[in-house]
Amino acid sequence: MAVVDAAAELFSREVHASAPPGLPKLRALCEAWVSYLERDVLPGGCFFTTTASEVDGRPGPVRDAVLGLTELWHRDLRLQIRLAADLPPGTDPDRLLYDIASVMPALNLFRQLHRDPKAAAQARAALRRLLG
User: Fold this and answer.
1) What is the model's pTM?
2) Apex CA 4: angle with CA 56 and CA 41, to 5°?
3) In the chain, fewer beta carbons within 10 Å around the N or the C end?
């Protein structure tokens, strides 16, 4: 649990944004997330992306902690989506959250397993398509 706590502290320190609420903050948070992975802050990429796939089917305190922290992150992203008045009318906040959250495991996979030097650029392009 100490490792999970340390990873959460590092993530919150590295992935933050001081932009105005709504779409500017959402874009800034997404860019900070890509940068966090691009800079190889941790060997192996995103601790939570990697750990979630290891513990998602195993009950216990580590799974519960990773789930709780992931839900907290998703809540923060969803809040910025809801505050983003300049999204197209009819945008489904849950679907947009799903789409945004889907980019990061792909980025982690392509950077870590495939060693793809274009992975961060691909993730940024995907996020631009989602967020304009």
Assistant:
1) 0.91
2) 105
3) N
